[in-house]
């Protein structure tokens, strides 16, 4: 099994920084993007310039069927991921009374459902490979203490902060621990 790590939302920001650091540490990086192909290519160019290796993957983390199709094909072609960094996310700031159904749904599907959509097709091949690895979920302090005008962020980030605490108990023989990182 190659030591490859998928980083969702790697076309910019924190995801790009994580992807570049993983490449510098010797991992082959799956640079995920949804709409920002140019940004993903910039990430790939940066990690290759630093001597790293990687490839881009495009799918909508909120679309379960699309995630499954792309990730199953990737695993069939390149083998199981050694790690997954669930980083992709969006915000829709504003006062709760003004929040639209579409904004609420977009945040929940992208920030919470994406966790299942991305991890579910990856986890059994990771466990089956018995090579260890790690699943990292980026969360937010908003999931713990909230933030004015960011009500849409609180429920999915709170759920993501709590979820990994139970995984090691259910995967104790899998050697694939998980971690949630609440970023400020």
UniProtKB/TrEMBL annotation:
Q: Which InterPro entries match?
A: NAD(P)-bd_dom_sf, SDR, SDR_fam
Gene Ontology MF term list: 3-oxoacyl-[acyl-carrier-protein] reductase (NADPH) activity
**Pfam families according to UniProt:** adh_short (PF00106)
Is-annotated flag, keyword Cell cycle?
no
**What's the Enzyme Commission number for this chain?**
1.1.1.100
Q: Coiled-coil regions in this chain?
A: none
The enzyme's first-digit EC class, named in words, is oxidoreductase
Q: Which UniProt keywords apply?
A: Oxidoreductase
Family membership, please give it.
Belongs to the short-chain dehydrogenases/reductases (SDR) family.
Tell me the protein's name. 3-oxoacyl-[acyl-carrier-protein] reductase FabG
**Organism source for this protein?**
Raoultella planticola
